[in-house]
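Take one record.
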Amino acid sequence: MTQTIGLVLAGGRSSRMGQDKARLLWQNIPLFQHMQNLLYESGVDRVLLSGAQFGNRALADKIPGKGPLSGIHVAIDVLPDGVNLLVVPVDMPLLPPEACRELVSAIAEQGRAVMFETFSLPLVLPVNSQLRSAVNRALSSQDHKDYSLRRLFDRLQGVTVPLPEEMVVHFQNTNTPDEWHRAQTAMSRAEQP
């Protein structure tokens, strides 16, 4: 069975949040740790964290300023061919582990990159020479559009799967204080009997 490695993308500037969102507390633990736990709940074998602010506990971008692509680049640099990389953003605390499991199941069937139809993250990538080449080519481009995960996915001829309707509400990024507050409110409502 193919090994699945999780990656939490936590290296962003958090400029719209006004503070490092990866360190915001979610249910009394830092958000980056919540997302690591979520990946383990999803069944991954190991979890990597990208973000220079974490020192030697994480992978620092070798080519900064290229968004999520920079984090993926540094992760595949330390991984062998033949594993799958499940990539999640640090700022999606309501993401259900079953959504991640669904993507991992889909890549096992398809053998190609997999994402949900209307969301670029989470994303599962097979680590191989094709991925390394596509990431390196995108990072060397002067066109900022080449840094998008959707464009990388298209170059890899990835497969999209439908997102179950009941999960859509959980796919909320928390980039601003208002979005953070809405996610916390949604979590509080979900916990009420």
Summary: DSSP finds six helices and eight strands in the chain. The chain has a mean pLDDT of 90. The first helix runs from residue 31 to 41. The radius of gyration is 16 Å.
